[in-house]
Amino acid sequence: PDMSVFDSDSRAGNALQPAGDGIELQPIGHVDQPEPANRVASGLLDAERDDDIDDVAETATDATEYATNNAETAARDDDAETMAGTGDTETETRGGSDGEHRLLPNVSDSQSGGNRQERKHKRWILVAMIGVRLVLSLPVVIVAPFYPQQIYRWKPKDEADLYTGIVMGSFAVTSPIGSFLSSQWLLKDAGAKTVLVLGLVLVGGSTVLFGSLQYVDGFAAFLSLSMLIRLLQGFGIGATDVVAYGLATASSAEQMGLAAGLLEQSFGLGLAVGPAIGGALHDTGGFGLPLFVVGGLALLFVILPLVVLSSRDRLTTKKIPLLKVANFWVVSSAVCGGLLPDLSILYLSSTLSVFLDSEFHMMPNTIGLFFLLSGVWTSLACAPSGMLAEHIPPRCVVIMGMMISAGGMVVVALTRRIPPQLIGQIMIGLGVGISKGSVFQDMAKEADNAGHVSSEERNASLFSVLVTCFAIGGIIGSSVGGTLASKLGFKIATLCVSGVLFVPALSYGLVSLMCRRLRSSVVVM
């Protein structure tokens, strides 16, 4: 091999270093410097101490002796070529006259390309789960504008609120059950991809079955089958939603606030466009068409997890007891940012269509536009709310959203003209989006304060608590709210819902402020 000797200015020895097909001696700096500027290849550490410098000098001496031995030279050649092929290190020249060399990390092209592919794969997972949540939200509200008209076939309008509320809220009974079973057992036995596929098939198939109820005669059979199918829908939505949320947040751990906001935004968008799509399709093809279209869309989306997810995309199934994570502040946050906003949304889904029909004589497609207006603002507010909660206390964002929603409810209850009604719907949608977009960050912050560090297991437990609150809010808003509207009238019932939003928001803020001051005083003492 080609060996070269440097000038006498080099006070230390010479280090052996791979260079191309041969081996050459490189200067390593001055021995008498406290911190040498040069580093040696072949895996040597920085010569920052005197002992390391002595080792380098001995290595240089060995290299000089090695140059006279052909057999050893050939062996060292092989070692140098092997190290050069690994791509673990790279020598880069800095400066000119002093011939300084520095050992820098070298990431191979294949490794950097793999990282890019991994990041791209995670982005596709987030996009796919956003699409899945959008599809899951459509069956929840697709029947809101026109289902009361089916009740009119057998019951008067003043009773339609009650039965519509029972059917609309029945899905929320099984949704937390599906979420719990999915997070605790189904994921472990079947895997994330299988749960997503089966959940979408169940949701899509039950939605198509709901459309076939137009051929059922008799009120008892119609109502019973409606509730049964909604229960199946709820189970499928809960089982699928928790997996979609877990995969999306796990793939965006560095930007969890943005990911959570986008997930809530997609669900809110479905709640927004669902009634409008349902009303338009109902006017075009009757009761069955909107349900057949949405059910078919859910079945079509089965392709997404099959194409996007790989065998590596699995959620951990280590269980963290819910009672260990769900302390007072976590549950309070889930109630204020999850239960109460869903209560207001499901209350309006059960009662608004009957109110607009009786008060303004609107058709289902026009009623759908009212739902669209509220839902669009919910969708638009979720992602900015999630990002805002990363810069200011998320609890403030949650409370602000609840106050806005309560004000919108008051406007809707006290006005009998369309322009104020539109303003009230915008306020409700905006407030719900602000609260739901930041609630997960508030729950995560309280879990951090309790000593539960961020992990997939902890986040899955938090989301299970949140899904349970969503479901309870849906049950109360649709069934109890529908009963109140039927017995007390839309105005009084809506004012009651406004109070249910305002009083907890105010209490939550005051108690949080007092407890914060108390904790601060204890720390000072």
Features:
single chain; 525 residues; mainly alpha; two-stranded antiparallel ribbon; 17 helices; 74% helix; disordered N terminus; disordered C terminus
SSE arrangement:
Layout: E1 14-19, E2 22-27, H1 50-66, H2 70-86, E3 89-94, E4 100-105, H3 109-141, H4 147-151, H5 157-190, H6 192-211, H7 219-251, H8 256-285, H9 288-300, H10 303-308, H11 322-325, H12 328-360, H13 364-388, H14 394-414, H15 418-449, H16 456-488, H17 490-524
Q: What strand line-up does the widest sheet have?
A: 1-2
Portion in helices: over 70%
Largest sheet: 2 strands, antiparallel
Distance from N terminus to C terminus (CA atoms, Å) equals 74 Å
Q: For the CA atoms, what is the radius of gyration?
A: 32 Å
Sum up the overall morphology in one term: globular
Order of helices and strands: EEHHEEHHHHHHHHHHHHHHH
Describe it for me?
The structure is a single chain. The protein has 525 residues and is mainly alpha-helical. Helix content is 74%, strand content 5%. It has a two-stranded antiparallel sheet with strand order 1-2. A hairpin with a 5-residue loop joins strand 3 and strand 4.
